[in-house]
Write a structure and sequence with these properties.
Chain B: Belongs to the B9D family. Chain B: It comes from Neolamprologus brichardi. The complex is a heterodimer. Chain A is built from 48 helices and 37 strands. Chain A is of the alpha+beta class. By secondary structure, chain B is mostly beta strands. A five-stranded antiparallel beta sheet of chain B has the order 3-5-1-10-8, with no helix packed on it. A four-stranded antiparallel beta sheet of chain B has the order 4-2-6-7, with no helix packed on it. In chain B, a hairpin with a 5-residue loop joins β6 and β7. The radius of gyration of chain B is 19 Å and the shape is globular. The N and C termini of chain B lie far apart (55 Å). Classes of the chains: A alpha+beta, B mainly beta. At the A-B interface, α33 and β14 of A face β3, α1 and β9 of B. β14 of chain A pairs antiparallel with β9 of chain B, so a sheet runs across the interface.
Chain lengths: 1611, 206
């Protein structure tokens, strides 16, 4: 092998050369073969079969030969494969190749020599080529697989791929020679598809050629298989086609296929078709071998070649077929097939015979190795979860609880002596402990040490001037000495007191024993005396006192010096102050003398100074000098103290020793009470329960109580635990007879895992119980006052208490392993105290942030800086003391806020991006749905903000051009502000969700609905009179443009004005030429049609005939929301209006005389405006449908038209003329699909509880009232509280107050106040209407007061109604506000008046009034009535004004708000006392008139871009004269006269025209109105126009605008 | 495109709605959609989709398999409003009415790499018990007005829901230019360990 490796390069070169030669040869041979083939075919077949027959007997040599023959044909493709692309894999294979080649050659030689006789001529003839083919890798593969599995594994997987790659490469090489740069790139980057896509033409052609030869060759081998031959060629064709297809696919990039589309409906057939594309059902049929193999390959049967193959696992033929078909469908499917055309499979792993030893004796004793073993059920892992991580379920933990015993420090059965004895024992214990600790000794030593150190320091530096540091140290030492001394003194004092106490108690015991004549306790105290050397002792004593005195003196001296210094400083200050004052006094005196020349500035300054010094004018009190301390007294004090706390010099040291050696008096010798006590003691026994995690796990034996009140248990409990230990506790029980009582509970700490049995001493845990026990014998009881003094004073109450000695530890296993859980499980680690002072308890948790306090604490507690425990604190202090961090002087709630700010506020302000984000978050209109805020600051352009800033600025400056009037501009600005505030409020409310906003839920069917549903079943399927049904509502969010349609159903109209026949004389009808041509002379009065325009869409109905036409036509107008935003809020703000115009279609026919062709008739169709209705979309949206008969706004005068005679007779009251005069149209308008109307903000605002000044009780009552009303009559509007302009809730009656109308109006009719009424109504109606809904983007009702209304000169129906009602009240009428619903406004407010026992209903925004029984009254329902005193809610059966009785005094018809139970609290009105009116400004009106006229003329000319627009000046002036008259009669009565006048003036003109009357608000609506009449659209060539404008001023800038439009055609 | 100064970053979400575990229901299908903030836009791939109807195998396994591929790329300028995947599962009830079986949402993982998420699913509860009954009878259970509600926090306090099963989704996340725009989503690259067990494999264990 190694040798071969060396020769590898040469080998490759040789191979290449050889291949080149081979290629040439092969080309030739192919040509030969194709010619030879046919002749050879028959021989070949025979040949092959014969050989195969042999093969079974003849052995491997034969087979090798045979395979050579077979592989011959394949060489064609395979040879090319190995051509140039020698990757590492191929390099590797070359070694193998050579190795294998040699072996094969040897084999071949052997085979040749053996089987020469069997070889026929052809085989020998082709021998050279066979030899060549031997060198091929192909044979190697075969051998390889057979030879050793290891190599085969390595070879198998990469070979198919590399083969393919190489093949392509070869193909390209052949075709082109050298790859282009692009190809090279592709080669390294592209992921190659299995089929070579970009084969060049030539190569593919070549391949086909090759394939052809292969086909033929394959036929040979397939003979022995019994597959139909017909199929063969077909199936061969298939892959060819496939590759062809693939060729096309590759050129397109994946992007070309990606396309985002809407979801679309797919029909069932199509679905099936698609499924068939997606789904694949493999067929059962056998796959021909040729498909499974790569092209040009014949199947090889390894078995036939004498190699061991092994048995394949049994698979049914169908399954195998299915699998093969499926695999073939996949890309690269062929790699699953072996050389023999079958799926590669490992030999069947199942052995023929069972390898398990047989079991013969089922019943009898089994082989012990096979015996089943019983294992106890083991708790599963999960039960062990308590001890987390306890992975080993076997590893149980053992807790050993050792309960040793119990000692009572007090027990109810204690006798007095016992009490004292216990106390003595306790004191003695204390003494022993103190003695052991020997604090006094330690402190004394420390003190001496410190003193020595101090002395040394002073001595070593005595000569020199002490440096700063040294002084510092000295003072520190002094301080330390002082502290230590204090500590020692207190300790000494304690020692002494303790000793005294012990002696005292012992004396008490002795006295008691003597008194009661028996002994109960075994205590005995000895005091051992230890004599001392008197002299040295005295010496020590004196030294000590002296040292202390010296120190104290030094201290006091220092203190004095400090004080003195302080005093001096103060004195200095004081003196300075005095001086200043004197100087000032002098100055002031000087000033008083007057220096007028002084600069005022200077003077000011002086004054400033004096002022600033003013407060210090008062002389500070003169400081007192400190007293000099009396040094003599110090010594005396020290001596006294020493005497108190210390042993006198020379006195022997007393050492107490307590022993239990005293004899206890036997019971017989004791008095009765004592015996009883002792008996009681004997009766009692004690035991303890052990509770683990609050569960009793074990209990000790019951032990009787000894006389010494000690109980010994001495029991150890081993607890095997599974659960994590939470708590371990002992309960001490006392047993008397059979009853037992809990004395106390002792909690034991859970031991650390390192605490194991045997290593821990017993610990004592104290317990106590607050049970009250009393006895009638000697026992002192518990919680009972007890006194040892003779006089019974100094009482004490003792509680049962004692100590349990026990220990808890972890057990040790057999192998000395502690049976403790890992450390991490230990809950609640022991808090290690932080030295003597705990920081948190010292300064409190909140103070932890306070550096000062921490520093203070650290200094006081003298933290050891080297202790690692304190490292973090010391670090912190270091930072703090370095002065970087200064604690702020103020308290801050969020003290870390600054740290959390990721940029400073200034930066935030400056950054455009942040600003953008902020504005979007605030939902500012311009940025509400802003997409893609740039990620980088520099990409935010300033233009983004321009509009917003402009708007902000415009808030202040309003374009006056639009408004023609500076006052209106101001109003607009004011409204804008209100709108903003309301919108902000609305936005807040929008974030308040209700369940219905989020969840769609079926409503619960009530019994009623169920009943109706049942009833519906019986209904006819197609009723004769169908009714409109409620449709399903659509939420607005999933809509898009074109989804919504506005349906306008125009049904019929009444009383359309009819054409007046053109005549010069009134009344006399003459046939004009035009009308005569139609034929039906008198019948054709008018041919009206309706045109509906909405959002730039104009549709019209067919033309009908007559004054009462019936169209019954449905028009569909598309609706598109602004910006495609179909959210509720956006829909609510749609301002578009639906214009419904009625036109008359007039046909003119002109006869054209053409000389050549005779007569021709030209027909002009002209439309003439008759009237209009406009309905805002917001109304349609909020009402969801509009259905009813509307009055058409017809002009007061329609030139050329007249009304038919009124059918109604006037009532007696002459202003009460029937107003049903006029044109009406019946409409049904709705939106399809039905949109869910937005919830009114009012409801939401209510939830938000707006602030109010109303009484809480009143508000509650009003809420109740409204709720009741809504429950009983959900349809009827009921309003008791409204929101004023500032957003406060106000009770409705406060709006109603008599207010006088402008004087001018009343003055018009001084005699007849009734006449003035319509004038007042007209005045009110002339104030422009501005629906809140439109202006406030939601159904938010804001009520403004009358003065606000008059200032704003804009408001909706409520404001109009309130104003009108107030006027009527002041005019002495009985008037109410009606809250109801009307068409088309929806919920609205009207005014009701009572005139001469007749109720009149006034529409405040049109100024019209209706009788109660007027059928055409737009008011549809009456909800409630309001006057200054009360609100009445309609509780009658009907709501229609015609059927309602307006008698509010009847309680069963009208439910009053204020009644006897809840009387009117005397609400004051929020309306002003009086309205102030500005006088009419005639000059301004005249100016406005000119401007409007000019603008309109311009506009009309603009609208007629094709034709010239001629103005008839004569007509215009005539019309102008009419207009003031019209205003005077309020356009109600058409004076026939002026038409005649006009007619006579204009003679030959055919005139059509009308006056329009509008309330003036802006110029735009006027233009719109003129445009909608369509007068400009007259096409006749000789048309002339006339336009007259008149503005009538009313007080307070209310303007009535009249526009007279006419078109004239010369006849 | 100036690669050095990107103005957007890209987030490529590949993955699978693997399946669901609804122990009580069968024949379910799943709708998914992405919910994202203002500063996000999908560049390629489908934003919404609907899977085939899957039914449980009759064998012991109780999962529904959809294996519905997700492949969407988003571009964004701002991580705020990071896309969320909202899935809602529907299926027939006893009477054959198509009712909702669960809503759920999850954020697209931040870090590149492979992630498997198990989304717990829930449905809104009827307000009244009677409604529950009538809803069952009529096949009209309460539904969210918009499945996207489950991806927002606002207004959820008014609803009550009960849980209903799990949907497991696997994600393969790639990001581009996040680092360049100074957004660090923590450990990136292949270091991210794929969670060894998918949502239901844990449930398989007793």
């Amino acid at each position: 092998m190694e040798a071969l490796e060396d020769g590898e390069e040469d080998e490759r070169e040789a191979l290449k050369r050889h291949l080149r030669a081979e290629r040439q040869k092969r080309k030739k041979r192919l040509l030969e073969q194709s010619s030879l083939q046919k002749s050879r075919d028959a021989d070949d077949v025979k040949d092959v079969t014969s050989i195969q027959q042999y093969s079974a007997d003849e052995g491997p040599s034969e087979k090798a030969d045979d395979s050579v023959v077979l592989s011959k044909s394949r060489t064609g493709s395979q040879k090319v494969l190995c051509a140039p692309g020698l990757t590492s894999i191929t390099q590797h294979t070359h070694h193998l190749d050579d190795f294998v080649k040699r072996r094969l050659e040897e084999k071949l030689k052997a085979a040749r020599s053996k089987g020469e006789s069997l070889q026929d001529k052809e085989a020998s003839l082709e021998f050279p080529s066979r030899l060549h083919s031997l060198k091929d890798r192909d044979t190697v593969t075969r051998f390889d697989r057979e030879a050793d599995a290891d190599r085969a594994g390595r070879r198998d997987s990469p070979s198919p791929l590399s083969t393919r790659v190489r093949f392509r490469e070869a193909a390209r090489q052949v075709g082109k020679g050298l790859p282009t740069a692009e190809e090279a790139f592709n080669f390294f980057t592209l992921n190659f598809d299995p089929d070579p896509p970009d084969v060049i033409e030539t190569s593919s052609r070549r391949r086909q050629k090759q394939r052809k030869t292969t086909d033929e060759d394959e036929e040979h081998e397939d003979v022995d298989e019994d597959i139909q031959e017909e199929n063969e060629t077909q199936s061969e064709e298939a892959p060819l086609v496939q590759t062809q297809e693939d060729l096309f696919v590759i050129d397109q990039s994946p992007q070309d296929f990606l396309e985002i589309k809407k979801a679309e409906y797919v029909g069932y057939q199509k679905l099936l078709q698609r499924q068939s594309e997606l789904l694949f059902t493999p067929s059962f049929r056998t796959v021909p071998t040729s498909i499974k193999l790569p092209e040009n390959m014949k199947p090889r049967y390894l078995e036939d070649e004498g190699l061991y193959v092994g048995e394949r696992p049994p698979v049914s033929l169908t399954n195998e077929n299915i699998l093969e078909n499926r695999i073939l469908k996949m890309e690269e499917g062929k790699k699953w097939f072996g050389d023999d055309g079958r799926i590669i499979a490992l030999p069947n792993p199942i052995k023929e015979s069972s390898t398990r030893p047989p079991l013969f004796h089922m019943e009898e004793a089994l082989d012990p190795a096979l015996q089943t073993v019983y294992r106890k059920a083991v708790k599963s892992k999960y039960a062990n979860l308590y001890i987390a991580g306890g992975a080993d379920p076997e590893g149980d933990y053992q807790l050993d609880v050792d309960v040793s015993g119990l000692i009572f420090s007090h027990h109810p059965l204690f006798s007095r002596e016992h009490v004292l004895g216990a106390r003595l024992a306790q004191l003695y214990d204390q003494y022993l402990t103190r003695q052991r600790n020997n604090l006094t000794g330690h402190l004394t030593d420390k003190l001496n040490g410190l003193r020595n150190a101090l002395r040394n320091m002073l001595e070593s530096h005595s000569g020199l001037n002490p440096t700063q540091a040294l002084q510092q140290r000295i003072s520190e030492y002094n301080l330390e000495v002082r502290n230590t001394r204090h500590l020692r003194d207190s300790e000494q004092e304690k020692d002494r007191t303790l000793l005294k106490n012990i002696v005292k108690v012992w004396k008490a015991i002795k006295a008691l024993r003597e008194f009661q004549k028996f002994t109960n306790t075994p205590y005995k105290l000895y005091l051992r005396r230890e004599n001392v050397d008197r002299v040295s002792d005295e010496q020590d004593y004196e030294d000590e006192i002296l040292a202390e005195v010296v120190e104290l003196e030094a201290e006091t001296e220092e203190e004095y010096q400090n004080k003195l210094a302080e005093y001096k400083k103060r004195l200095e200050e004081w003196k300075l102050c005095r001086k200043k004052q004197k100087a000032k006094k002098k100055k002031q005196k000087k000033k008083k003398k007057g220096q007028a020349q002084d600069d005022t500035e200077g003077e000011d300054e002086e004054q400033d100074v004096s002022e600033s010094e003013g407060p210090t004018d008062e002389p500070p009190p003169k400081p007192e000098p400190p007293e000099r301390p009396d040094l003599g007294s110090i010594e005396q004090w020290v001596r006294e103290k020493t005497l108190r706390i210390r042993r006198k010099p020379g006195e022997a040291i007393l050492i107490p020793e307590l022993s239990a050696s005293a004899n206890i008096t036997a019971s017989e010798l004791c008095p009765r009470a004592e015996t009883a006590r002792r008996e009681d003691v004997a009766r009692r026994s004690l035991f303890t329960k052990i509770l683990y995690n609050d569960k009793e796990v074990s209990r000790t034996d019951s032990r009787s109580l000894n006389t010494d009140f000690r109980v010994h248990f001495g029991q150890i409990f081993n607890l095997k635990i599974v659960n994590c230990p939470q708590s371990i506790s002992l309960q001490v029980f006392e047993e008397i007879g059979s009853s037992c009582s809990l004395l106390a509970q002792v909690f034991l700490p859970v031991p650390e895992p390192s605490v194991v049995t045997g290593s821990v001493p017993l610990e004592e845990f104290e317990f106590s119980s607050n049970q009250r026990v009393m006895f009638d014998h000697e026992g002192v009881g518990s919680d009972v006052p007890l006194s040892f003094e003779a006089d019974g004073s100094n009482k004490q109450s003792l509680l049962t208490s004692g100590k349990v000695s026990c220990c808890v530890s972890w057990g040790i296993g057999d192998d000395d392993v502690p049976l403790a859980p890992p450390i991490s499980q230990q809950p609640g680690g022991v808090h290690s105290g932080m030295g003597c002072l705990d920081a948190v308890s010292y300064i409190g948790a909140s103070g932890l942030y306070d550096m000062k306090k921490i520093g203070e604490w650290a200094r006081q507690s003298r933290l050891d800086p080297n202790d690692p425990k304190n490292a973090s604190i010391m670090q912190l202090l270091k930072v703090a003391s370095s002065g970087e961090v200064t604690a702020p002087e103020y308290f801050r709630l969020e003290h870390l806020q600054e740290e959390f700010n990721f940029v400073t506020d200034e930066e935030l302000e400056k950054s455009g991006r942040f600003r953008l984000l902020k504005l979007r978050n605030q939902e500012v209109a311009e940025f509400r749905n802003y997409k893609f805020i740039p990620a980088l600051e520099r990409e935010v352009t300033d233009t983004v903000f321009q509009e917003y800033e402009k708007r902000l600025k415009e808030g202040e400056v309003i374009d006056t051009k639009e408004h023609l009037d500076s006052h209106r501009a101001l109003v607009a600005k004011y409204l804008q502000k209100i709108r903003e505030s309301v919108i902000n409020r609305f936005l807040l409310a929008k974030h308040h969700y209700l369940l219905s906003d989020l969840v769609i839920e079926e409503e619960i069917p009530t019994i009623g609905i169920l009943g109706i549903n049942l009833f519906k079943l019986a209904e006819p399927k197609r009723p004769l009179k169908p009714q409109r049904k409620e449709r399903k509502k659509v939420t607005a969010q999933n809509l898009s443009d074109g989804d919504i349609k506005l349906l306008v159903n125009i049904i019929r109209a009444y009383d359309i004005p009819v054409r007046r026949l053109q005549s010069n004389k009134p009344g006399q009808s003459s046939h004009s030429a035009l009308q005569g041509s139609i034929g039906l002379l008198d019948q054709i009065q008018v041919r009206p049609f309706v045109e509906v325009s909405f959002q730039r869409t104009v549709l019209q109905t067919a033309t009908a005939d007559g004054p009462n036409p019936c169209w019954n036509e449905e028009l569909q107008l598309p609706f598109s929301a602004p910006n495609g935003d179909y959210s509720t809020a956006s829909l609510q703000s749609v301002k578009d209006e639906v214009f419904i115009n009625i036109f008359d279609e007039v046909v003119h026919e002109t006869v054209m005389n053409d000389k050549n062709r005779g007569k021709s008739i030209q027909t002009h169709i002209e439309k003439r405006w008759l009237g209009s209705v406009k309905i805002p979309f917001s109304t349609i949206y909020s009402q969801s449908k509009i259905d009813g008969t509307f009055k058409v706004n017809t002009p007061a005068v329609l030139l050329g038209y007249s009304k038919e005679k009124s059918h109604f007779t006037n009532s007696g009251f002459d202003i009460l003329r029937s107003l049903s005069e006029g044109t009406f149209i019946t409409l049904f308008i709705t939106v399809d699909p039905q949109l869910v109307p937005g919830e009114s903000v009012r409801e939401k605002i209510k939830e938000m509880k707006f602030d109010t000044q109303e009484d809480e009780r009143l508000l509650q009552a009003s809420e109740r009232f409204e709720r009741d009303a809504a429950q009983r009559y959900p349809e009827r509007p009921c309003i008791t509280t409204v929101i004023d302009l500032s957003g406060k809730t106000v009770f409705i009656t406060r709006y109603i107050r008599p207010l006088s109308p402008p004087k001018e109006l009343l003055d018009e009719f001084p005699n007849n106040p009734l006449e003035a009424t319509p004038l007042v109504a007209r005045f009110v109606s002339l104030i422009p209407s501005l629906p809140d809904q439109v202006s406030f983007s939601a159904t938010c009702d804001l009520w403004s007061t009358c003065d606000q209304f008059l200032t704003l000169l804009a408001g909706d129906e409520e404001e109009h109604a309130v104003l009108l009602c107030n006027y009527f009240l002041s005019m002495g009428k009985k008037a109410w506000l009606i809250i109801g619903t009307a068409i088309p406004e929806g919920p609205t407010a009207y005014v009701l008046t009572l005139e001469q026992n007749l109720y009149l209903i006034w529409n405040p925004s049109s100024g019209q009034f209706y009788g109660q029984y007027d059928t055409f009254c737009p008011l549809q329902a009456v909800g409630c009535l309001v006057n200054p005193d009360n609100v009445w809610f309609n509780i009658q059966q009907y709501t229609s004004p015609m059927r309602v009785s307006f008698d509010i005094s009847k309680a069963h018809l009208w439910k009053p708000f204020f009644s006897r139970t809840f009387s009117h609290p005397g609400l004051s009105s929020i309306q002003p006392e009086e309205l102030v009116y500005r006088r009419t400004d005639r000059a301004a009106a005249a100016e406005l008139q000119d401007r409007i006229e000019r603008i309109l003329k311009e506009k009309i000319m603009e609208w007629r871009p094709r034709q010239p627009t001629r103005w008839n000046r004569y007509c215009t002036t005539t019309l102008k004269q009419f207009l003031p008259k019209l205003e005077l009669i309020r356009g109600q009565d058409v004076a026939e006269g002026h038409r005649h006048e006009l007619q006579s003036l204009l003679g030959d003109y055919r005139i059509s025209g009308f006056p329009l009357n509008l309330a003036f608000s802006e110029i735009r609506p006027i233009i719109e109105a003129v445009y909608s009449t369509g007068i400009h659209s007259v096409q006749a060539s000789n048309v002339e126009f006339a336009l007259a404008v008149y503005v009538h001023p009313y007080p307070n800038n209310v303007m009535s605008v009249w526009i007279y439009l006419a078109s004239l055609v010369l006849t | 495109m100036a690669a050095s100064n990107p103005s957007v970053f890209l987030l490529t979400v590949n993955g699978n709605i693997e399946g669901a575990n609804f122990p009580e229901y069968d024949n379910l299908y799943c709708k998914y959609c992405f919910v994202y903030g203002h500063d996000w836009a999908p560049t390629t791939g489908l934003e919404e989709g609907i899977t085939q109807i899957a039914s449980k195998s009759s064998q012991a396994s109780h999962r529904l398999i959809w294996n519905f591929p997700l492949a969407t790329t988003f571009k964004s300028t701002n991580p705020s409003g990071w896309p969320q995947l909202v899935v809602s599962v529907y299926g027939p009830d006893v009477f054959g009415n198509d009712v909702v079986r669960g809503y759920g949402a999850t954020h697209i993982p931040f870090t590149p790499g492979q992630h498997t998420k198990t989304i717990p699913m829930f449905v809104p509860e009827p307000t009244w018990r009677l409604q529950k009954f009538t809803g069952w009878l009529t096949g009209r259970r309460p539904e969210y007005t918009d499945p996207k509600v489950v991806a927002q926090g606002e207004g959820r306090e008014v609803t009550r829901v009960h849980s209903q099963g799990f949907v497991s989704v696997s994600f393969l996340i790639m990001t581009k230019d996040m680092k360049k725009m100074d957004y660090d989503t923590g450990p990136s690259g292949p270091a991210n360990k794929p969670s060894a067990t998918s949502g239901w494999s844990t449930e398989e264990q007793p």
